Amino acid sequence: MKNVIQSTLVVCIVSLFSFGTMMAQEAEPSKKLGIGFQLSQYQQDFGVGLNVTSPYFVHKTLAIRVRANLMFNEHIQSGEMTWTPYSNITLGVLSSSATMAGFMRLYGEGGVIGIMPSSDFSDESFVIGGYGLFGFEFFMSTHFNYFIEIGGIGSGASADKVPTKPIYSNGLSISTGFRVVL
User: Fold this and answer.
1) How far apart are CA 49 and CA 119, in angstroms?
2) Which domain holds residue 97?
3) In Å, how far from its chain's centre is CA 84?
């Protein structure tokens, strides 16, 4: 029994080492046009959206990213908690580091956000602000990655039709999703 456990342990260690070596030797992840989907949390608002990343330029370290999100503002309406949809769009520049271990890439991104609030909770028709974030891309192959981002948004947007006129789309932002890089 002891020999079976030792043999199994050796096979597991060799397999892990082989997998790590294989990942390190895989081709560099693509830095071409990327299209993706994300789930987001901006302060207390949940959202879903799409993103498009330009091909990288300037020594393959910079790219332009556009996102469009359908967000849901959580607030009280007629004495009940509700989620009212609104939308936003971002335009940003991202700077990417080299790929680490053949499957992970770090990046920073910053830009402008345009918010189109619902008339159910705001008198404003358009609010502009800024955002910044850092992210991690985990490549399952050279053309497909999963990403996690954390950052902040500043827009000054407030739900002026809701009691206490709370701010929304300000503060902490968290997103996760996937991208297909063509």
Assistant:
1) 21
2) 2-181
3) 22
CATH code for the domain of 129: 2.40.160.20
Q: What is the C-alpha to C-alpha distance for residues 162 and 159, in angstroms, rounded to an integer?
A: 6
DSSP at 147? E
Nearest to 53 by CA among 80, 34, 32: 34
In degrees rounded to 5, what are phi and psi of residue 73? -85, 120
Cα(143)–Cα(180) distance, integer angstroms: 6
Q: What one-letter code names the amino acid at 149?
A: E
pLDDT mean values, one per 10 residues, the chain (182 residues): 49 45 58 96 95 95 97 88 95 91 92 97 96 95 94 95 91 96 90
Q: Which two tokens stand for residue 145?
A: 């990655």
